[in-house]
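#structure-requests
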Amino acid sequence: MLSCCTKLSPFEPRLLSVLDNPYEGVLAIDERGNIFFVSSLFLELLKRSEPEVIGSSVQSLLPDCKLPDTLAQNYSIWGETLRINDRELLVARFPIRVEGRVAGAMLRTIVPDQKIAKEIVQKLSRPALAMNSVTGLCTCHDIIGESEPMLYVKKLARRASRTSSTLLITGESGTGKEIIAQAIHTRSVRREAPFITVNCSAIPEDLLESELFGYVDGAFTGARKGGKPGKFELANGGTILLDEIGEMPLYMQVKLLRVLQERMVWRVGATTPTQLDVRVMAATNTDLQKMVQQGKFREDLYYRLKVLEINMPPLRDRLDDLPMLVDGLIQRINANIGTNAKGIQPESLNILRSSEWRGNVRELANVLEQAINWSDDPIIDLRNIPGRVWETSSVRPESSDSQRLRERVESTERELIFRVLEQTDGNKSEAARLLGIRRSVLYKKLERLAVHPA
């Protein structure tokens, strides 16, 4: 079936029989998006012969296939659905790398029948849903946003979920640092183990050590009989998130460093340590590197925590995500307070686009909940919120110079997209690849800039 092979070694027939079997489908494209391998299952579904498929553009045969996105983005996606004629498949797609370079992409069926796939998902999801309903942890589906900054965050999150290295999550208050930490945990191999969050600024200094590391019976006056495990022990096998890590006092930073180095904790008053298997994440809205320079944060601890780092972008840098964020937050607010809001007025959305959002997504959720509570109409209007004078506070009037600059930037962007679409004969997937953006991002730009290629 592999037409590009003119001579097969003794092992290649067995390899081809593994790839080409009646129970799964495999399809591979080269860096130009042309198919160079197709299994018999896909040929059967496409109702075509091998010569008709080999060398053809994947987009011409399977317009809904996202393999060109895999070429452009260089990462794997598992669990997508792909419809071929009247058959719906559960598939995975991943890049093919040769000597460190992306040389193609491959599509492979996980389950070649959607009915069977749904039955499997239902069976597997029952315990996970039960756990999630108890813990209330966020998953990757709770990370809303398709802007370039958020796509980068999601890419880093996927990679961070594959390891147990320490992770430092930075970003302004309200950007969703704890949400990304929970999503990484629920995607990792530790997802069935505990996820414990500790706010380092909310615990008094004299109690922080016993809260984190626990204590033994009689360790101090008022100690609970029999002792008490600390947060690290409670998180054993799972993940602990040290929120507001910049507020941790220096003497506790020394003890935390020892825990990270030795992978064990000493309860207050204990004579022997407790061995641990815990992934440590830390979050902060302060500049730890600056605190190191000021002598307020230990340099050795800083580098222990910053093995991996994810910086959450502020809302003002991802305003393209506003419509998605608004829809998602309205649904969550409806579920929490029993309302039935359906959307937001265009004028109110323009107000949101013009606001500073110093409180980021947390502030946006607060404003939307206010609007929902004060609105009688299911399509909410921010101007119904008492005491919020949007025209004089949050909305920044656009000067004529800035407006001209914005119009010029949009004109240049529109012209570039138009040229690339002409070059690709209107093939949006190929255009997105040449522009270095996701196809979904291109569609949004086409809608916003009203680009209509001939």
